[in-house]
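COMPLEX REQUEST
Ligand: iron/sulfur cluster
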Amino acid sequence: MTAILAVDALSVRYETPDGVVNAVNDVSLEIAAGECIGVVGESGAGKSQAFLAVMGLLAPNAKVSGGAKLRGRELLGTDPRALRELRGAELAMIFQDPMTSLAPHIKVGDQIAETLVVHKRTSWRDARAQALKLLEQVQVTDAARRLTQYPHELSGGMRQRVMIAIALACDPVMLIADEPTTALDVSVQAQILSLLKRLMRERGMALALITHDLGVVAGLADHVTVLYAGRVVEAGTVRRLLKQPAHPYTAALLRSMPRIDASVSEPLVAIRGQPPSPRELVGGCPFHPRCDLAQPRCAEERPTLRSTAGAMVACHFPIAASHGDLS
Amino acid sequence: MLRYALQRISGVIPTLFVIITASFFVIRLAPGGPFDEEQTLPPEIKANLEAAYGLDQPLLVQYGRYMRGLLAGDFGPSFKFKDFSVTELIAQGLPISLTIGLAAVFVAVLIGVPLGALAALRRNSASDYGIMGFAVLGIALPSFVIGPLFALIFGLYLGVLPVAGYETGQPKYLILPVVTLALPVIAYIARLTRGSLLEVLRSNFVRTARAKGLSPLRVLFRHALRPALLPVVSYLGPATAFVVTGSLVIESVFGLPGTGRYLVQGAINRDYTLVMGMIVVYGAITLLSNLIADLLYGWLDPRVRYD
Ligand SMILES: Nc1ncnc2c1ncn2[C@@H]1O[C@H](COP(=O)(O)OP(=O)(O)OP(=O)(O)O)[C@@H](O)[C@H]1O
Ligand code: SF4
Ligand SMILES: [Mg+2]
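STATUS: Structure written out below.
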């Protein structure tokens, strides 16, 4: 397997007046060509920070360490100019909030065309013609008219489609979608997700789908990485992870959300306690204050990510696989 | 855009009408009249004078006559500068007042916006602190302090610019007044620009622009600057009003023959027509500058012009 994107021991920290914030700690993951990886975790787990770091879009005061290679080319700490050439062309990202992510004063068509003009040196004329095709591809109704409209004239779902069209304009090999449907109506959510799925298949594009919703992941992703307090606590295939979560946090996450595929309708259980603040360092396992399976050892020694019985998990006492569920 | 523009323009006329009408009656309500000061005037002559200027008529009749005159572009005779009509007086002074006023606003935008943008882009650097320190001073110091100070430095010590007075066709007489007038506006615009650009640079759509791989210059000029200028443009209307009223003071500091003196003298003398003429002209200027600011705002922000 050749990785399109390989993130290696990525950390992001901020030195603020109120102390150090460790937003991302030692995160590694790989995404293969044409594959979809789900990145899940509660709010504040460091999902956005990790991928904004990959894109080189963090605030100037962020301290980034580790590596991130796109098709073997290092992204972190490289010449900003070289990074700009990849960004928006080979590596694209769409964001959580479509209402505010488009420039209010530029026509939608021009916002799409601009990427082509800048990266491919296309003329504005041709770029606008391509923008029309892209809008049709992302199933924007009445695409020709939309080209000359401004973002405020479009609904949230339409704006997110425009964001996707911008991201797809230069045919990227890797698309990062940061909670692309969180701000949208449920019916629109499903449309956008199936659109992403289709585009992935058609273009052989790799997709990193950031979400706090395991249901979204179930429908789209091949692999899942679970983040907790800026760390990877579990990673594996969707099939295994949803059926047999090995990390108590993953299991709790699954219990806390409605499942259509649940064999018995179990009651939903919210995870007790609050996600840890990235400002305070929890000794031992970061999940231990909230973990039902915690033992004395968990408060003292931090579990490292290791492979046990087909699962990558960072836990001293992973949940054992029940027999016969997986071949 | 056209509908938006027509809407804005059609709002100006009624507003001006209300300003004129209200001022007309308020001025007449103030005690005293134009001929009261001339103590030696026998009552019959005063009555004759008042009749000659129509002041013996009921107020409503005077109002009707005044408005008819205005429509024909006639501001009436001055009560005190007896050889001149108000139109003549204002036509004499207005070019100077307008020149320094408009030049001040123009200079303020031209210097204030780049200064503010520089401070935002070099946030927390020495240039940021320097610019913002200057801005605080520029806003805090009143122009009647800065004006004489400038006259002292550039006129007396350095001797490069005239201290006061005016000769036609000699712009050097206008430099100090314009700079004095522009200084607080430069300071305010720089602060506005800095704050608003910093906010826009943190916004989601600028992050999108950077995610598209655009160069920093393109991000700044095509994506960030126009939205960041919105607060500056909204301030242009009030800024013009500020500069216009400020010019009344500055003109007397630098001894310029503008219109400023007419407002003060006219008010003291109860020179009704002169004061009214000033109000009409300055009211129109203020409304016009607000109108231009509105149109500019609509051009910058599509959300406004479609509502
Ligand atoms: N500029 C910054 N300075 C200090 N801390 C920051 C900064 N940006 C982000 N953080 C912190 O980093 C942590 C991780 O944030 P991140 O946005 O990656 O979370 P997330 O997993 O994407 O959550 P969500 O689901 O809410 O989007 C948060 O606790 C946040 O407070
Ligand atoms: S290491 Fe201990 S506290 Fe942490 S998840 Fe595993 S069992 Fe729970
Ligand atoms: Mg996020």
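REMARKS: Residues 91-267+294-306 of chain B form a domain with the MetI-like fold fold (CATH 1.10.3720.10). Chain B has 13 helices and no strands.
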